[in-house]
Fold this protein.
Amino acid sequence: MSKYRVYPTPAQESALLEHCGHARYVWNLALEQWSMWTRDKGATPNVNGQCRQLTEARSEFGWLRAGSVTVQQQALRDFNQAVTSFYAGTHRRPTWRRAGQHEGFRIVGGQASRVVRFNRKWAAVNVPKVGWVRFRLSRAIPESKSYRVTRDRAGRWHLAFAVVPPPIPAPGTGEVVGVDRGVVVSAALSTDELLSCPGLTQRERVRLKCLQRRLARCRRGSDRRRRVRAAIAKLHARASDRRKDWVEKTSTDLARRFDLIRVEDLRVATMTRRPEPKPDPREPGSYLPNRRRAKAGLNRGILANGWGALVRRLEHKAAGRVEKVNSAYTSQTCSVCGHCAPENRESQAVFRCVACGHQAKADVNAAVNIAAGRVVSARRGTPVRVSPKREPQLITSA
């Protein structure tokens, strides 16, 4: 997807926000209509029936009629596609869209090709009932039949053309790499490379903490609170931009250098889920400590290092060349002799095998195990012979 920064005028920004509000309103109405279905009721209307209901609503409400019917009907089609993908098992269940968080709309059809280029740096796109909106030409404009206009929490507008780029061809060298993801080291490669995802600097983290303290003292609904929240959102957007840039560059580099990329099979969404409360059986209405704050810090570390985004982009760029390996005991198994024991992991950073004395960086040792495609036995202590040129074999006693 090709994404560009949009710079609307104040009047255009107001019109774009109205389009976002109308698209969000129509989406939520369709979601409510779909969620209220029960067996004793008839089938919910399809997208054509909902478009007819939208026509009746536009004739009755002037504020809805003032918006673009193209934007509103496309929101219904997008919701219908989301429901279809949910039933197909490829996407999650559609959720509610909130103001300030889900600001955007999509245009499909002839309007998508109405792009004018001014010079090497600037171009404009024609948005229905808004006019020509300028955007920065950071890359070539692809051929597309639809585009999406979005606004992030930091107040920045973006234009994205729906284009699926071709995957990166394999180099043909036969090289295999293992990627071990972590919190201290974002990605450790079996080639002894340690990659770190950039985040906020020390000075920016201090400013973020000061802004969060100031936000706690602001009165809800005040202008000062709104300004402080906007400043916090800009810092978070800066960290998100750096993380996305690192993910794109790292995934492209790995897809160009290696024929086969092996990663841990981790369920990031499950790992970052907040712990369930533990009721206290002795005191009804009370709960036992469940280390919620410590888990929240770990969740932030996992998400800040882009675990899921890195693998997702690797699967897009190196299609068919990404393998997921069972991550059980890869950090406790020696990559030389195959001895698996908790004592091998001397610390978070150092690995020292108690059987053969092999010493290495803990993350790199785990990455070598992942690169070998190791399937470690669930019974600890079972040695595994690792060969870089063939599949690992279990060592059985004679």
Q: What stands out?
A: Confidence is low (pLDDT under 50) at residues 375-398. The first strand starts at residue 2 and ends at 6. Residues 2-161 form one domain.
